[in-house]
Design brief:
Elements lengths: L1 H4 L21 H9 L35 E6 L5 E4 H6 L3 E8 L22 E10 H8 L7 E12 L2 E10 H4 L5 E6 L2 E2 L9 E3 L12 E7 L6 H4 L3 E2 L8 E2 L6 E4 L4 E2 L6 E3 L2 E10 L5 E8 L2 E4 L1 E2 L9 E9 L2 E11 L22 E7 L1
Parallel strand pairs: 1-10, 15-22
Antiparallel strand pairs: 1-2, 3-4, 4-7, 5-6, 5-10, 7-8, 7-9, 11-12, 13-16, 14-15, 16-20, 17-18, 17-21, 19-20, 21-22
């Protein structure tokens, strides 16, 4: 296996960071962790995540955009190109939709060996209410030509990754772009977008990992051939090795998380709680279908939790389970299943870039 990790990176499939390692966190990973932030697990108690608690992943720098001069271009394989100001966009029909967004690299730091990039544990997630114009409305206004294959979304952020200088850009197949729930959002939880969440306008693609929801949106380009930009062809792929072309990351794999019970030790975050009745709770979600069940593991035995109705088809659902905690050391876990029958694995989903690792969360607690 180690030979695979040392394979020379090909120009066509160069990953976004160095080869996986079994060593300690690198200075580069710590630097990324300081710039980006996870959602504290105690925020799972909330149906909607406040912007300051919602996870943030920024590839390059946060652009400083003057909304009064900002313009959105819609171009390419369309009958008529559009150029819209923020004021004009806000006059178009709008929808508000609750959406759980999760970083595709969530769980990466738990993989062994560890792929080098943003070292998420399991908290790269959040749920917000996004208000904006349905993408399908603007595409209909522009008139998509029959030969259209994909829609490319380009943000104002740019930099170098994999040795290639580029603006952050991703594409969607035309059938996904025409869904009625894909939105060009200009409000988050009732307020204008914070700078780190894509001000003044971002794309939100329900059900897909967060890399698809391009922030600081500047252009929408309808194209007749598959997009081959770096973030599409090289980053965000399930690869077995550096030389494996891999398959693209798309929809969110089923996952559940628990609010760690009790109180934490400051440094280790180990949990301590008093013996007696405890209400275990958390959230579960999937981009492939509704969550149909959550099991809670208590010292290796699994018990079905109670599910509550989510705020929308692409928002997480709450689960609860009463537990009588006996004194001693215990291991808690949670495992979700969705409507497709997919369930969280008990072991890691290892891949070269560290994508989609949805293995079950485990929480060790000391009951006094």
């Amino acid at each position: 296996m180690k030979q695979i990790y040392r394979q020379r990176q090909s120009a066509r499939t160069a990953p976004p960071a160095g080869v996986p390692t079994s060593g300690p966190l690198t200075p580069e990973e710590l630097q990324l962790a300081a710039r980006n932030h996870a959602m504290p697990l105690e925020a799972l108690r909330r149906d909607i995540t406040p912007p300051g608690l919602h996870y943030v992943l920024t590839h390059f720098d946060i652009p400083d955009i003057d909304a009064s001069s900002w313009r959105l271009q819609v171009k390419g394989a369309v009958e008529r190109s559009l150029e819209l100001s923020l004021a004009a966009l806000r006059k178009d029909p709008a929808i508000t939709i609750p959406v759980t967004l999760e970083c595709a690299g969530n769980g990466r730091s738990l993989l062994k060996p560890r792929p080098l990039s943003q070292p998420w544990v399991q908290e790269g997630v959040g749920t917000a209410e996004w208000k904006g114009v349905p993408l399908a409305y603007l595409l209909a206004k522009a008139g998509v030509l029959p030969e259209a294959a994909e829609v490319v979304f380009t943000g104002a952020d740019a930099g170098i990754q994999g040795g290639i200088r580029h603006p952050y850009a991703r594409s969607l197949p035309i059938r996904e772009a025409m869904r009625p729930d894909v939105v060009l959002a200009y409000r988050m939880n009732g307020n204008e977008l914070p700078p780190q969440h894509g001000y003044p306008v971002r794309l939100v693609v329900p059900g897909w990992y967060g890399m698809t929801s391009v922030k600081w949106l500047e252009s929408i380009d309808v194209v007749t051939h598959p997009f081959t930009g770096f973030q599409q062809q090289h980053a965000y792929r399930y690869q077995d090795s550096a030389d494996d072309a891999g398959t693209p990351v798309s929809r969110i794999r089923v996952r559940s998380l628990m609010v760690p019970p009790g109180v934490p030790d400051f440094f280790t975050r180990n949990r301590v709680l008093q013996h007696g009745p405890v209400m275990l709770q958390g959230r579960a979600w999937s981009g492939h279908g509704a969550v149909t069940g959550v099991e809670v593991g208590i010292d290796g035995g699994w018990v079905a939790a109670q599910l509550e109705k989510p705020a929308g088809p692409f928002a997480w659902c709450k689960w609860t389970l009463p537990w009588v905690a006996d004194p001693g050391e215990h291991e808690l876990a949670c495992r979700a299943t969705d409507a497709t029958g997919a369930a969280q694995p008990l072991e890691q989903n290892w891949n070269y870039q560290g994508m989609g690792n949805n293995m079950v969360q485990r929480v060790r607690v000391t009951v006094e």
